[in-house]
Amino acid sequence: MSNLQIGLMSIVLILVLIQSGLHVAIALAAVSFFSVALIRGNFDVAGTFLSLAALESVARYSFGVIPLFVLMGLLVGISGLGRDVFEVAGQLFRRLTGGLGIATVFANAVFAAVNGTSIASASVFTRIAVPELLRSGYTRRFSVGVVAGSSVLGMLIPPSLLLILYGIIAEVSIGDLFTAGILPGIVLSLLFVATILLLAKFRPGFVLAKPEEGARSLVADDLSPSQMIGKSAPVVLLIVIVLGGIYGGVFTPTEAGAVGALAALVISVTRRSLGWRQFWGLLVETGRVTAAITFLIVAAHMYARLLALSGLPSQMNALIQHYELGLFAVMALYLLAIIALGTILDSSSIMLIVLPLILPIMASFQVDLIWFGILTIIAVEVGLLTPPLGIACFVIKANLEKLDIPLNVIFAGAFPFVVAMLVMIGLVLLIPQLATALL
C-alpha cells in the first residue's frame, strides 16, 4: 500500500470511527499513530514522531488563552448578565413587529462578546428568551428558531473558542482573527434582524401564533434609563476591558483572557451570584473543557503530521493544477464539503479533520488565512443548525425543560437563519474586505 493510499484510508477510517461513537481525539490520534507506523515500518519511530507533534502543539504561550476564556465564559453565564441584556434589548425593540425576536438576536450578539461559545449562548437564551417569546404570542417554531439561529454568533463575534482553535491549527494571530470577526459578526446580526422583519411582513404565520392579534409585549415597560444603564453597564464594561485592551494594544489575547476572567469573577461576586462551592465547580469545569480541547489539538497535530508524511496535500495540489481549478472553484468545493460534513460532525471535529488537509492548498494560492478562517468559521457554524446532528438544536431541546417542542420544529425554525448564514458566506467570499477591513 502506497503512502498516498494510507493517507486516504486514514481519512475514511477516522470518519467511520467518529460516526461509530469513538471520541474524535482518540480516533485522530489512534489512526495517525498506526498510519505513521505503516508508512515508516516501525512503531518506535511512529511513537517518537507523534510524541514530538504532541509536545509542539501545546508548548506555546498562546495556548494559555483557552482555559482563561473558558473560565470567563462560565463566570459570565452564572452571573445573570444574559438575562439583563435580554431585558434591556426587549425594552429597546418591543414596539417593532417581531421585536422580541430582534431583542434575542441583539442580546445574543452582546452576550457573544463576553462568552465565546455558541453552545453556551443556546443554553442560556433557551431558558431566558423562549418562555418570554411564547408568552408574548410568538409561535413555537419561531421562538426556538431565533434562539438557535442567533446562538451561532457566539463562535464568530470575538472572543470565540473556534477562532482560537483555528488560530492554533493554522498558526495565525489570534488577535487578528478576533479583529477580523467583528465586522462579519455585526453584518450577520443585521442579516438575522432583516430575516425576522421579512418573515414578520411576508410570513406572519411563521412568526406569530395569531397574526391578526400581533405580539403582546410582556417585557417590562417601566425600565428607566438609569435602570437600563445599570443592567447593561457590567457587560459593556467587560467588553471594553477585554476587546478594548486587545485592540488598543494594552495586552495580548492571552493576557486579555486573564483580565477578562478576573473582571467576570469580580462582577459575579459583586452580584452575589457566585459562592465558594459554585466557584470550585466552575474551576473543575474549566479544567475539564481545557483538557478536552488540549487532547483535540494534540490529536489534530498528529493527524497533520501524518498527512504531510503521506504526501496527500501535495498530491491534491497537483490534481488541482492538472485540472486548472481556480481559487473560486476550490473554495466552493471546500465550503460545500464543510457544510455537508456539518450534518454529521460537530464544529471542532470538522476543523480538526479538514484544516490540516486544506491549509497547504490555500498556501499555494497565497490566500489570506485570516479571511479564510472567517469563512471557515461561518461555514462550520451552519452545521450547528442542520439535521441530523445540529448540536445547537439538540442543546435547545435539552434545555426546554417542561416545554415539549420536537426537534423537527427546532430545525424548521432555524432554517431561515441558515439561509441568512449562506448569504453571509457569499458576501464574505465576494467581499473579502468584510473580514480584512479592520486589520
Automatic annotation (TrEMBL):
Keywords: Cell inner membrane, Cell membrane, Membrane, Transmembrane, Transmembrane helix, Transport. The keyword Cell inner membrane applies. InterPro entries: DctM, TRAP_DctM. The keyword Nucleotide-binding does not apply. PANTHER family: C4-DICARBOXYLATE TRAP TRANSPORTER LARGE PERMEASE PROTEIN DCTM (PTHR33362:SF5), SIALIC ACID TRAP TRANSPORTER PERMEASE PROTEIN SIAT-RELATED (PTHR33362). Part of the tripartite ATP-independent periplasmic (TRAP) transport system. This is TRAP transporter large permease protein.
